[in-house]
Design goal:
It is a single chain. This protein has two domains: about 80 residues, Methyltransferase, Methionine Synthase (B12-binding Domains), Chain A, domain 1, CATH 1.10.1240.10; about 120 residues, Rossmann fold (3-Layer(aba) Sandwich). Helices cover about 50% and strands about 10% of the residues. It contains eight helices and five strands. Strands 2-1-3-4-5 form a five-stranded parallel sheet, sandwiched between helices. Helix 5 runs parallel beside helix 8. The longest helix is centred in the N-terminal third of the chain and has 21 residues. The protein is globular.
Length: about 220
């Protein structure tokens, strides 16, 4: 687990995305890349950390929805700049389908998850925010993923995640599901208990380890 060389950059990055300063935000990230800081560390320690702080500011009515959306938009723009640095030509031929639960509009976290899968050679089908479960199930029938990854950022969307999990597991009982998101910082772990096919992933480091374990298995083995 690699750390950022200067912890102070976290606060600077948070302030820059809140100010809508894409140029400064991008510059900070490029400087970290030049210091050979891995993309997953930049995601986890810098961008994710900053957005969690932004989310808490919004939840406590210290910033407006407009400011929260601006910070999110700048973060996604910076992440898009990083994509060429994370794609690998070595592919596993495995597919993962990723989505936010219904009513969930925050998609940056699960986009990070999709990018980590791409780094590991998986083909990621990132469906984004507020995905109706019926549409996810229908599309999964066409793509035939080896894995689902579902995200909830707002704690009050945990019941939506629970319903989505139930319907996905009913339709695809043989396909494992990963769940995660900022919502689980406030509880909700009970939605993943009792089903060995559902795994809660707390951060990108745990995700990377989990992917490595799955990918190391033979191609024709079940995940």
């Amino acid at each position: 687990m690699e750390k950022l060389p200067d912890p102070g950059v976290k606060e600077l990055f948070r302030d820059s995305i809140l100010a809508g300063d894409r140029m400064a935000s991008s510059r900070m990230v490029r400087e970290l890349l030049e210091k050979d800081i891995p993309v997953q560390t930049i995601y986890e320690e810098l961008i994710k950390n900053a957005l969690y702080q932004v989310g808490e500011l919004w939840e406590n009515n210290r910033i407006t929805v407009a400011e929260e959306h601006l910070a999110t938009s700048v973060s996604e723009a910076v992440m898009n700049e990083l994509f060429p640095f994370l794609v690998t030509r070595s592919r596993t031929k495995k597919k993962v389908m990723l989505a936010c639960v219904e009513n969930e509009l925050h998609q940056v976290g699960v986009k990070m998850v999709a990018d980590v899968f791409e780094m590991k050679g998986w083909d990621s089908f990132f469906l984004g925010s507020n995905v109706p479960v019926h549409d996810l199930i229908t599309y999964a029938g066409k793509v035939h993923p080896a894995l689902f990854a579902l995200s909830a950022s707002i704690y009050f969307h945990i019941p939506d995640l629970k319903r989505m999990l139930h319907e996905v597991r009913q339709s695809f009982p043989e396909i494992p599901v990963l769940v995660g998101g900022q919502a689980f910082r406030h509880g909700g772990q009970e939605v993943v208990t009792g089903d060995p096919m559902v795994t809660l992933i707390p951060d990108l480091y745990a995700l990377e380890k989990h992917i490595d374990q799955m990918t190391s298995r033979k191609q024709n083995d079940p995940i």
